Amino acid sequence: MKNVAIIMGSASDLPVVRKAAEKLEALDIPFEMRVMSAHRTPAEVTEFAAGARDRGFGVIIAAAGKAAHLAGFIAANTTLPVIGVPLKSDALDGMDALLATVQMPSGVPVATVAIDGAANAALLAAEMLALSDAELTEKLNAMRREMADSVRKKDEEVGKSTL
């Protein structure tokens, strides 16, 4: 199975990014987490992105806030799928990061999830990897069944309650 790289622009992003790690762990998908900045360590980001495929990565998740150039910078240096996670900031509630992540020029795509949507980024990465992995596909199907069962249980509980 291919690995997933989770790159965050700052260590302060870890509380949000940890949600991606938890989903990947639940699916037994190996991953590596790193802190790299498109602005403060551009050479390291370039080197990592350019060599990611050779190091066994199949998808890269990049989480950043504010100017949020990390996902696009990574995508410019690899042909692996890159999933951007825009992070909420105090100034504009993450809208700046969302727009910076989603508005990529033609030819350099970045899949983008919701602001602070690290868990969905992990699930999207898993779905990408599952295209060539039947065992992972079954794990994802089981996860969906569990979600549906949980909703049905909650529906039953609400239906039995008196308002």
Structure description:
With 163 residues, the chain is of the alpha/beta class. It has a single domain, classed as Rossmann fold (3-Layer(aba) Sandwich). Helices cover 47% and strands 17% of the residues. A five-stranded parallel beta sheet has the order 2-1-3-4-5. Helix 1 runs parallel beside helix 5 and helix 5 crosses helix 6.
Strand and helix layout:
Layout: E1 3-8, H1 14-26, E2 31-35, H2 42-51, E3 57-65, H3 70-75, E4 82-87, H4 95-102, E5 111-112, H5 118-130, H6 134-160
Parallel strand pairs: 1-2, 1-3, 3-4, 4-5
Helix pairs in contact: 1-5, 5-6
Weakly predicted, low-confidence segments: none
CATH hierarchy class name: Alpha Beta
Number of spatially distinct domains? 1
- Beta percentage is 15-25%
C-alpha end-to-end distance: 49 Å
**Gross geometry:** globular
> Roughly what percent helix?
40-55%
How large is the radius of gyration?
Answer: 17 Å
**Largest sheet descriptor:** 5 strands, parallel
Averaged pLDDT: 96
Q: How many distinct helices?
A: 6
Reading side by side through the largest sheet, how are the strands ordered? 2-1-3-4-5
CATH topology: Rossmann fold
CATH arch. level architecture: 3-Layer(aba) Sandwich
Structural class: alpha/beta
Number of strands: 5
Order of helices and strands: EHEHEHEHEHH
